[in-house]
Amino acid sequence: MSKHLRTPLKTVRGLGSARGGTHHFTVQRITAVALVPLSLWFVWIALSLVHLDYAGARTLMAHPVHAVLMVAFVLSVFWHAQLGLQVVIEDYVHSPGLEIAFQLAVKFLCVLGAVACVLAIVRIALGS
Amino acid sequence: MPQAARPKSPHLDIYRWQIQMVSSILHRAAGVALAIGTVLLVCLLASLAIGPEAYAKVQSCAGSVFGQLLLLGWTWSLAYHLLNGLRHLLEDTGHGFQIRTFVMTGWVAVIGSLVLTALVWACVLLQRGGA
Predict the structure, then answer these.
(1) Which residues, in sequence order, are CB contacts of A69 under 8 Å at separation 6+?
(2) pTM of full prediction above 0.95
(3) Which value does ipTM take for this structure?
(4) Which of A109, B89, B97, B129 has the highest CB neighbour number within 10 Å of its CB?
């Protein structure tokens, strides 16, 4: 008999997997699969940008197909990066306070980066 | 409990370097490098939204020697992370774990990433030569 009144389920929630253990793995794989074609498309876009001036670059990015793909690319990149960096920090940063600080910083920076990119793409696509 | 007295599990410096560990370490290193590279992605898109002057600044940064070296590094990181990522996805399906296959796909990822990087930069240099 447990000396606590809490059920074992109550104890494990928030500490262990509690049926959420595969979520990180799954989302990492989904974003990875999405990034295979999106990265190839991005390399092609980046190579196109090399010989374009500002107006040409803006026209290229403003195309609806490229704008949509760029939003998809940016969201997948920052999501995937956050998941990957989270594991790296979990593996190498062992002092709890520092680890929480790093995890929060990575999450916030990834969200900020994604929001900034999406806003920029929307401005380019709408020509504002 | 005294931490120092405990035996430690063997770490990186104990093992002979081999493709199995190198491909894994490089995957993580390339991933971290690419995450840092997102700073340039933000700068590129933001400057394109802001205007020609801002875009010219990002272009000159990317075109400097230091910028070109970083871009070369990020090209290889993306190529390697992509190829080794595909290898990981293959392994997620339960295939590719035979030692021969595992070593072979590891070399495919390392050498393939160098080939892809060379191809991309050949495109860059050809475009520049043609401009």
Answers:
(1) A38, A41
(2) no
(3) 0.89
(4) A109
